[in-house]
Specification:
The chain is mainly beta and about 150 residues long. The strands form four sheets. Strands 2-3-12-7-9 form a five-stranded antiparallel beta sheet, with no helix packed on it. A hairpin with a 7-residue loop joins strand 2 and strand 3. The mean pLDDT is about 95.
Length: about 150
């Protein structure tokens, strides 16, 4: 397990520094900075602030995922499915929470709203070519590799 420091800046004194839920958790919890409940209407999206900015190490990205409890119990999950915080971003970390249900839902003050996993990534050098290498799959699209 790799460990490194991540610099965090509180943009609001009420912001909660992220915490891991267990010793081997991959993701750490992000909390709403709001002192009040936030209502998310049915099928709508609300941008929820954390009150934090962070310095993700170069070569890594902060991937924001749904919290399983919030998604399964309240039907609330990031609108873009997975948010990406780049290493050069220094603004406030926010989560666009979408209500997938037909009822209005609320987020409690300072509730855990999402989880972030810091992950390494590779960048690509794009080279334009006339032909791509051959594979058995070739140009088979969606569902082309399944059995009937």
């Amino acid at each position: 397990m790799q460990m490194f420091n991540v610099n965090i800046k509180k943009l609001d004194e009420k912001a909660i520094i992220p915490k891991y839920g267990s010793e081997y958790a991959a993701g750490f919890d992000l909390y709403s900075v709001s002192d009040e409940e936030i209502t998310i209407k049915a099928h709508e999206t609300v941008l929820v602030k954390t009150g934090l900015a962070m310095e993700i190490p170069v070569g890594y990205a902060g991937m924001i995922f749904a919290r399983s409890g919030l998604a399964s119990k309240k039907g609330l999950a990031p609108a873009n499915k997975v948010g990406v915080v780049d290493a050069d971003y220094r603004g406030e970390v926010m989560v666009a929470l979408h209500n997938h249900t037909g009822e209005d839902k609320t987020i409690d003050a300072h509730e855990r709203i999402a989880q972030m996993v810091i992950m390494p990534f590779a960048t690509a050098n794009f080279i334009e070519v006339d032909e791509l290498s051959y594979t058995i799959r070739g140009e088979g699209g969606f569902g082309s590799t399944g059995t009937k």
